Amino acid sequence: MTQKVAVVGAGKIGEALLSGMIRGGWSPSRLLASARRPERAEKLRVRYGVECVSASEAAKAADTLIITVKPQDMAGVMDELAADVPAGRLVISGAAGIPTTFFEERLTAGTPVVRVMTNTPALVDQGMSVLSAGRDAGETHLARAEEIFGGVGKTLRVPESQQDAATALSGSGPAYLFYLVEAMTDAGILLGLPRDKAHELIVQATIGAATMLRDSGEHPVTLRENVTSPAGTTINAIRELENHGVRAALLAAIEAARDRSRELASGRG
Ligand SMILES: NC(=O)C1=CN([C@@H]2O[C@H](COP(=O)(O)OP(=O)(O)OC[C@H]3O[C@@H](n4cnc5c(N)ncnc54)[C@H](OP(=O)(O)O)[C@@H]3O)[C@@H](O)[C@H]2O)C=CC1
Ligand SMILES: O=C(O)[C@@H]1CCC=N1
């Protein structure tokens, strides 16, 4: 059982993890947070009752150190804390793009590193966290990461070579879905519906469709075909989606996100 967990870079994702662990029954006394701005640290202290310390103090005290700063800030944070991580402690990176070797090169030889790509639905315990072990991380380290990230949603182990693809699909995925909802709401307005009603209709349709995708055991094609009546309304919309290349646009968009994740690995901020 993990003794003390520190989150360095307690922004959106770091806070989602801290709050999720507390919802899941972790005592705030077992958690540490590190933020860059004092006012951010104060907010976390007040909101969750967690102790806020410097990155280097967090590194010294934690059995498990989770680093959730922006990829562009990762080199600076590692310069700040790498020398303070005692041998054998688990380091978990939540950053897009950055490979486990980046950390292994900077930490004491043999330090286990796990790379995790989660997503913002972790805020409502519906996250999708994709985990990969670095060179010196084994079953116990992956299990410890799953204990933490499993508290805020689902977890899946993948080879690290698939992390950039996972980042593009599930890490960024909620943004594409929010974008679709936003565009569909605009369509409702075009058709004369008030914005609040259009929003309510789309949100419930999204929740219903997502629940069916998860629970029905049916393939998405079958679920779509069940909505698409011969000479009905839906097929007219599907023809327009095909005419406008929406499927091809999604393929290109997600490939572009994967490419950006690869660029972040090579330090191109
Ligand atoms: N947002 C998302 O949907 C997802 C993000 N990620 C990954 O999670 C990471 C964080 O992203 P996100 O939460 O969106 O970003 P945020 O900017 O919200 O959080 C990053 C936090 O790191 C803090 N920080 C920066 N430098 C230091 C330091 N030296 N010591 C302590 N804290 C520091 C920042 O402080 P300050 O606020 O004061 O600048 C900020 O609060 C990224 O690597 C991203 O790739 C992964 C999955 C999804
Ligand atoms: O946009 C980003 O870089 C981060 C990583 C995945 C989701 N948000």
- State the end-to-end distance: 37 Å
Adjacency order of strands in the biggest sheet: 3-2-1-4-5-6-7-8
Proportion in β-strands: 5-15%
**Class of the largest domain in CATH?**
Alpha Beta
By CATH, the architecture of the largest domain is named 3-Layer(aba) Sandwich
Number of strands: 8
How many structural domains? 2
| Main beta-sheet strand count, sense and barrel state | 8 strands, mixed
- The assembly state of the depicted protein chains is single chain
The CATH superfamily name of the largest domain is: NAD(P)-binding Rossmann-like Domain
H/E element order? EHEHEHEHEHEEHEHHHHHH
Bound molecules: NADPH dihydro-nicotinamide-adenine-dinucleotide phosphate, (2S)-3,4-dihydro-2H-pyrrole-2-carboxylic acid
